[in-house]
Amino acid sequence: MTNFTELPRWPQLTDGDIDAAVSALRSNRLVGAPGSLVDELEAAIAQKQSVSRAVAVSSGTAAVHLALQAAGVGPGDEVIVPAHTFVGSASPIVYLGARPVFADVRPDTHCVDADSVKSLLTERTKAVVVVHINGCAADMAALRAVVEPVGVALVEDMAQALGTKIGDRPVGGFGDLACISLFEQKVITSGGEGGLVLTDNAAYAERVKRLRTHGEGPIEGQPGMIWAHEVGYNYRLTTMQAAIGVSQLKRLDEQVELRRHNAAYLSELLADVEELEVPTEPEGTVHAYWKYALRVVPGPGRRTAAELAAELRSRKIPALLRYPYPLHRQPAFRDHRGESCPVAERLSQELLALPSHPGLAEGHLDHVAAQVKQALVQ
Predict the structure, then answer these.
(1) How far apart, in whole angstroms, are the C-alpha atoms of residue 283 and residue 285?
(2) Could you check whether 15-249 and 252-377 share the same CATH topology?
(3) pTM, entire model
């Protein structure tokens, strides 16, 4: 009999995932020679995301780094990025000697607000990083309308959004480049770390490929010879990681449907709790629900999100605040703080993520919801 008070952890690798990794190790092609599983993963992801090119790299942060560099971001440039996101969306901007400019987010989707982006554009703006936060699609039409007239690159950070769609199209093909993370906690993983850069631009893809391998490439007129065309990085993905990624990708649709089912089930259980505001799915989109992030509505005598999270953790429910410190308020970006972002600042005190991953059955979610309700009244 299942003990629904013991919540399974995520990720959950199958025997097929493990067998794929072992087979890759036994191949003795560990880094990814032409024709390897790295190529297979790139082709499969590109097809799945409806883009022409995907380039595998060592992490989601590496993907953001190389995407911005391929787009021409460098010293003295400005890149607009939401204040409400993970640090890896912004730190690559600083790697490149550019300045992150923090935009506010929308109170409903928690994604970057196009009006805030528009207000921050300057002649030094080189790119905008758009995060599809928690698996919720950002308003790409509004954002394109803002950046296209001024020729600014649009980079989709879809680290949390494999399976997310706008209409019938997967996210990742609405910007100039897009970045995927295959970190262990994401929708699918490549065995701990991993990422990809997506684009329909051949020049961008070739630049990312060169940069991920020390900036090396062939010498024109000298077949078989290579040299470093520019200073690059060691951002390669291993064959073993690619093998796990290929195996996991086959279950992506199933995993996203389970996430959506679990999110809908939790929302049904919690819909009548006046202290909570359950997450929404923008009309015409498919929310992948990488995180089930609800709002703890403040009020006299009510628990704060931080208090509720602490109480739930004491009950062995792994509840987490969603970005309790906006990026523009963190020490790493003290030199780039700029204007305030009132919505991001408010959400940092109100958003709470509850477990909802595909490893949880409805019985587990019944237990989670019951514990939430009890914690709110004690």
Answers:
(1) 6
(2) no
(3) 0.97
